[in-house]
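Appendix C. Worked example: DUF5062 domain-containing protein
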Amino acid sequence: MKKIKHENELFKKALEIGEKYALNRGYKGFSGTVSAKQKVESLYRLLVNDKLIQPLAVADEDQPHMKHKLALWIAKQLPADHPLLK
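Step 2, the predicted output written as structure tokens:
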């Protein structure tokens, strides 16, 4: 897994956008007691289910790989001139 530039910031942006996407899809939202790990896994599985991202190999389904996959997803959604892509 190759680290991408601004990966942490892209991941945070992916969580923000992913939560809005989940709400639009009818998900009731994340309560304050939901851990970050649960959010990551839920958003990853939702995006895979909706065929917006390619699923990871079963052996690679762990938090670091899911976070990386979410960061890659949002990087492809942002406009080319976005500050996080420079």
